[in-house]
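Example complex used in Figure S2.
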Amino acid sequence: MKQSSRSASFDQNLAAQTNRKAGNTPALILLIALLLLYICSVKVQTGLLSLLFPSIQQLTHSRKTLLAMTGEHIALTLLASLLATFAGVLLGIGVTREEGRDFQVLVLRLNSFIQTFPPSAVIILAYPALGFGWKPALLALFLYSLFPILGNTVVGFESVDPGIKDSAKGMGMKPLQQLWIAEFPQAWPMILTGIRHSYILNLGTAAIAAVIGGGGLGTIIISGLTLRNSALVLSGTIVITLLAFIGEQVFLLLSRLTRS
Amino acid sequence: MQVNQAHPILTDTHTFLKVEHLVVQYGTIVALDDVSLEIPANRVTVLIGPSGCGKSTTLRCLNGLVGIERGTITYLDASVQGLSQTDLRRSMGYAIQSVGLMPHLTVEENVDLVPRLLGWDRSKRKERVDKLLALVRLDPEIYRKKYPNELSGGEAQRIGFARALGSDPPVLLMDEPFGAVDPLNRILLQDEFIRIQRQLKKSVVFVTHDLEEAVRLADYLVIMKDGKIVQADTPEQILSSPKGEFVERFLGPERSLQRLTLVTADRCMEKALSGLDSDASAHLPDCSNLTYWQVDEDGAPVCGYTRSEGSIIQKPITSAIHTVQIYSSLKDCMAKILNSGLSAAAVVDERGRLCGEVRFEAIQQISIL
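Predicted assembly (629 residues):
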């Protein structure tokens, strides 16, 4: 608990620093342009990869375009992060209310327990129930990304100055008003950090979806691994890395816009 | 010379709310043990006692922040009768030691919170904020858009007070509001509080552990110990006839000096002898112990003169620490007189102009009463 709070605030500091240094909107536009250029044009892909791996013949996936795989990857990651944000923030709010505080320790323990499952194990365990395809992958990603969001939400709300809660209640705010007017704005930077963490985490983890036919950039990476084709692995990795950078910039922008 | 009654007597008001046989428990600890109390309307009731005596708990029972085990609280005043818990809280301004300003809201938005909750219309609210900021003497133009982290402790406390007054509530609940402020600023805030309270006449319940503050501000003083009320009366009455050893010990050996904190300067202020020239001997009759004040064109005192054993003592006045304000305590006046060696202390108004003096004999007379 303490650990995660410390690392989150460290992250925030880091974010604030990079925030000041980088003029992020131009960087974001540049990154998006690079990404689009790479995934849309087979010429760019083969051009770049043949420079790095002159001996390898096959530089693209045989059945699927990189564009389609990227689309699946983003959809899976975003959906998992959105669901986890929804569940994590609601659950976090629930266990920081007076009525739900008794469950806080239980929920946080359970949350870290889930973390100890490797995502591949979750996928395999979920297979009988959810079958083949993107669904078990979504479940795994969802459970995985719940941890940082829920944890940060709880820390965010618990670290609101008790004097502020007291005066909010004392001046006659109803429970929802206390939450929305007094507490949420203070917990928000911390929550956003949690969401950012989970999104970045998901981008990498989503690659395993391909194992069970869930699509995404894992498709090209795993093909590369089975064919011992480093160029294919790198091609998928390039896109994931670009997506991570873009995600980082979007969140910085978001935190700047909402922290006023 | 006119000596007003130091405090208006409590009989010309009605009971605002009545607390009967209140018992509050935190687990196995009894925080309040059969507390019965009547809070007078339009007066300042101060709850005082050592830490853990239950003074804050009593206050927090009044707006329902602490649950009651047994006993009743009856709201008798028409302004708060039959209100729901939420509405009750909105009609009781609440100020606490840690201030509790929302750090993500500007000063204006903070002060505006309760009117906003009550759904007042925008123009009325804006007007109200400006009025409140002016009331606590912070320039709206400068402070409106500031954030709480840009304020000093004293300024934040003023904003907290302005916020508590937000919707012009009939009641103010104040839990050690000046506790975290340095001594100098605390006195200033007390002065402001007295000035504003005389203007607004709210029903105030004020918690403090500072005896001088309590004696200064209270119309009705409630001394508590171990969750019980030991004595509740006007400060004059308590200072002159303390009930029991605990109260006597609590009031301390400076009891008679404390009585001077009860009275503000304006209550025994007299017309000052003043002029523009420095020829004091012409103004001061022989064998008198009057003080002559030399003032500048604006009316601000620059020097004081008193005859003493044939010669004339001269005391230049260079800053505000040599003078007192209308709402300063007589204890403060006494200190200024002793420091200067003059026979009186100069009283100045907000703009620093001489508006009267408080003489040594007047203080003596009051402390005999």
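Chain B touches chain A at residues 63, 65, 86-94, 96-104, 113-114, 117, 160, 163-164, 166, 173 (CB under 8 Å). The mean pLDDT of chain B is 88.
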